[in-house]
Amino acid sequence: METKAQVLYDFTAEPGNNELSVGEGETITITNQNVGGGWIEAKNSRGEVGLVPEDYIEIKQAQPFTSGGNAASLDLSLFDSHIPTPAPASTAQVDVAQPETPVTPVTPGFSSTSPDETSNGNDPWAVFDNNASGGVSNNWAAQPEGTETGKTSSNAWHSGGHGHPQAYQGPGAEDDEWDEEWDDVKSSGGYAESDAGEGGAINRGGAHGSSMKIALNKFPGFSKSGPEVFLLSKQPAKGTKLPVYGGEVGPVWAYPDYQLDCVVADPKKGSKMYGLKSYIEYQVTPTTTNKPVNHRYKHFDWLYERLLDKFGSAIPIPCLPDKQVTGRFEEEFIKMRMERLQGWMSRMCRHPVISSSEVFQLFISYKDEKDWKTGKRKAEKDETVGVMIFSTIEPEGLPDLDLIEVEQKCEQFNRFTRAMDDGVKDLLTVGNEHWKRCTGPLPKEYQRIGKAFQNLSSVFTSSGYEGEAALTDALTAAGKTYEDIAQMVAEQPKKDLHFLMETNNEYKGLLGCFPDTIGVHKAAIEKVKEADKLVATSKITPSEKTTMSKRASTMSYALQAEMNHFHSNRIYDYNRVMQQYLEQQVKFYEMIAEKLRHAHSQFTTM
């Protein structure tokens, strides 16, 4: 007997994802209820077959749709159990057997779990320019998490090695294709013109790699495309509670007594497949244990993907340093990548939620290979991901906010982060131009001055007049002084401007994530605004409407806590980097002044 179902909400299929577009009130035939991950396979009246979110339908045999038009309340039962979809046979990788060799520190093995990087165009803020509701249409499934970054390529979830996260396959089953093709952007050692632009090598992953990818996918917790997953969830909260307290500056995260940090150092070249594959390992040493563990770049990327899946809806997770194919083993590139990995890890360590999470602690302090495999499997099967991370957040002693307050806070943060994004990019542009001048035309000008003094000294010497030796020697010394200054000018950006540029590049990437995070909150606000209509059509109950408002308030407190964390870090970082920059500038000009004073002393006072 065929199983019929009534469609409760409009759902728009994404091309290439084997999904089926359905409309509210439509009757469909279920062809497979065991797809898993919150999806079912169904056929419409036109004979088209595809995947539909199981919470968008009501099975007639279980809960008949009445003639009066009263639909059953939205049931988010997909969160009661998640069965990861097994990878298709076509994507299976050939294992290459290798003997396990104990290494201290241990380097974990990985299977490929990272989805393809998606692009958000050239402007991550465009989502707020085009739609007052934060880029979210009235169709709940139109845009994942209330942003535009959920649009994936047609084969994003079907390419080999990039499917649903699988359990660890053993040390001989590492994804070899990463070794040669994982890095795909050529990076310069200094600050090329593109670095300060939208698509520069500083950005990871293409046109605008700094924005996060919060996508509609087949992972547990992301099976639906908006904050309503959390707003109407009937699932009890799972995972460690994340309290938010009222502080002097407003809502704040709970900070640990001890500030975690880690050191990324000692890069070494390794190989496998009998030397056919080469890679660079970095040693990561946390301050908590002082015991190092080894990680490759792809391991860092695995951590990034896990953090993004779990916390990305509530906390901006900046992308890793850029990827590269050629020159991966050049000393300058290795040094630059290590420095940027250090910056990324330090920023993660400073976040109280990220640094205390199980997956992050596993990454920096796993005990052995068995410990790593167990923790890795657990992280990849975590159900509290996507917007469901808000279910673990508990405002301690804070009153519920009304919708107007929530919307005002969201807009305030949106305006500030957008303005700061413009300011950071402007400083990067100016710094890039200054770097070019310091390493190009400016030293040449000093060299020309120095040579002109020395040429004049040679002319004076040719006069044969015996009383001018002191003058010609002083002129020659002055010329050499200006040549020394030219060399100092060319080397100075690496001593001061470099750190200022690196800090701004970090913030450029971090600010590029905020449109996605804020977009989730704007989408939630829109859903709460629709609550009256949903109550009127009996799609939700009045109590569920109240629950939606309370949960939107919880989301707002999380956003405020995150913004206050961002502000405190911003003040600390820019104080530190500006002090460092100006200290180096003072030393630089003092050295120049000392050289000029010495040159001045060579001339006879008449």
UniProtKB/TrEMBL annotation:
Residue ranges annotated for the PX domain, each copy included: 260-370
Among Pfam families, the record links this protein to: BAR_3_WASP_bdg (PF10456), PX (PF00787), SH3_1 (PF00018)
Q: Which GO terms describe its biological process?
A: cleavage furrow formation; endocytosis; endosomal transport; intracellular protein transport; mitotic cytokinesis; plasma membrane tubulation
What Gene Ontology terms describe what this protein does at the molecular function level? phosphatidylinositol binding
Major subcellular site: membrane
The residues that hold a 1,2-diacyl-sn-glycero-3-phospho-(1D-myo-inositol-4,5-bisphosphate) are R296, K298, R337
- What segment(s) does the record annotate as region Disordered? 87-205
Checking InterPro entries in the record gives:
AH/BAR_dom_sf (IPR027267), PX_dom (IPR001683), PX_dom_sf (IPR036871), SH3-like_dom_sf (IPR036028), SH3_domain (IPR001452), Snx9_fam (IPR014536), SNX9_PX (IPR037426), SNX9_SH3 (IPR035558)
SMART domains per record: PX, SH3
Report biased composition (Acidic residues) as residue ranges.
Answer: 173-183
Q: What topology does it adopt in the membrane? A: Peripheral membrane protein
Recorded GO cellular component terms are: cytoplasmic vesicle membrane; plasma membrane
Q: Which UniProt keywords apply?
A: Cytoplasmic vesicle, Membrane, Protein transport, SH3 domain, Transport
Q: Mind telling me which PROSITE patterns this protein's record contains?
A: PX, SH3
SUPFAM superfamilies documented for this protein = PX domain, SH3-domain
UniProt key word Membrane: yes
Q: Where is the composition biased (Polar residues)?
A: 109-122, 130-141
Q: Where in the cell is it found?
A: Cytoplasmic vesicle membrane
What CDD domains does the record tag this protein with? PX_SNX9, SH3_SNX9
**All copies of domain SH3, residue ranges:** 1-62
Q: Which family does it belong to?
A: Belongs to the sorting nexin family.
Protein name in the entry: Sorting nexin
